[in-house]
Amino acid sequence: MAGGIEKLSLKREMGLIGAISFIAGTMMGSGIFMSPQSVLINIGSPGGSLVIWAACGVLVTLGSLCYAELGTVIPESGGEYIYFLRIFGQVIAFMFAFSCLFVMIPTSVSGIALSFAEYAVTPFYLDCTPPDLVVKCVAAAGIMVLATVHSMNVRLAIFIQVFCMCFKLVALTVIIVGGLVLLFNGNSNHFEDSFKGSNVEISSIGISLYQGLWSYDGWNTLNYLTEELKYPEVNLPRAVMISIPMVTLLYLLVNVSYLVALTPKELMSSSAVAVTWGNKVLGSWGWVMSIAAALSAFGSLNGTFFSGGRVCFVAAREGHLPDILAMAHVNRLTPSPALIFTTAISLLVLIPGDFQSIVNFFSFTAWFFHAVTLSGLLYLKIKKPELPRPYKVPVVIPILVLLAAIFLVLAPVIDNPAIEYLYVTLFIFSGVLVYVPFIHYKICSGLLEKFTAFLQIFLEVAPADKTL
Questions:
Q1: What CA–CA distance (Å, rounded) separates 169 from 61?
Q2: What is the pLDDT of residues 142-169, one digit of tens each?
Q3: Number of C-beta neighbours around residue 388 at 10 A
């Protein structure tokens, strides 16, 4: 980058309503339409599944309060990456960025895109399973559309998030009301002996929590784009305390509706429980649930895309990725190079994508880093109490969430070890092998500078500064 260039800044476009929409809209994606059967299969009973859903809601609420404090102490975009960098230093921050950019974000984007595509094409294949090629092409198209939107206009991306959240709230309300009508008409026999057959093995509980927490993923979305949030010291904790309890209550009521309308056997055998529910309760209007689930997944994909591009952007701004990825478009002020990079990796991951494997290994990796983040918050509370804290939580909350995160990481591995978890762990730590030659010793830096100069002109971008 040439010296003396005036740096651009990302705009603070997002208010409280947009913040709530991004958290709730990202969380309420494909999970609530697909994960309930997986939770029930692993935990083994209707009552146990409701306990899992409630426990997931409590856990992410407490976790989000801890992240809200971190977001006000370190008011920078980038989520866990920027917290690791400021608290633990370069190496751990790069390990997270490496894992996030090449595993967590692409698998999350591709998994949600596949869910969106499956629901979107289902009305056209009523009598058969949609071809895998068609599903993946539609998923790729969804990713490309959102990449274009986010590169063109932040306000349009926020509008899509608000619109999709409103639509999915209507869809979930239909499911809840339909279930309550059945319940008031006396259809409560599926709750008799509701805890009979519960699996209390550690691995069963751990995997059930993984599947449930996939539906809650997105609770930390705002921490990735703090610099684009108006008055983050106020709006960040407010948005968290409004959106996450609301989503938890909706999830519990939706699951009650599923269990009222469907037998446990019907629910466990369904590949898309919302569509099965719609066909049974709504009859000829059952196809509406397929459209609702598709739009819901699209909104979740939009929010995930938004936060994912910001991780790439911030990591580049701190020198852990090529400089071009820390630039913004000179007119639109969007981090388009980072978005293009995220899109490219997500499309590659989409090719061999497997939904269930994505859920388990994504959750394992995510909660590993959540545990490290909470350790960082405890360190700041103990060692640096003098730091200004517009918002803070009692120390017992991060301790409880840290213990839960450690359980989520270790429980499935200890009770039912699988070689895939070892592969994921090795990949996380392999980031050190990349950091030493390319970041610390700056091998190939001259070539990257020439490539960056070319792309800077081609993409019409300039270095972006922090919005503080």
A1: 19
A2: 999 998 998 888 788 888 877 887 888 8
A3: 8
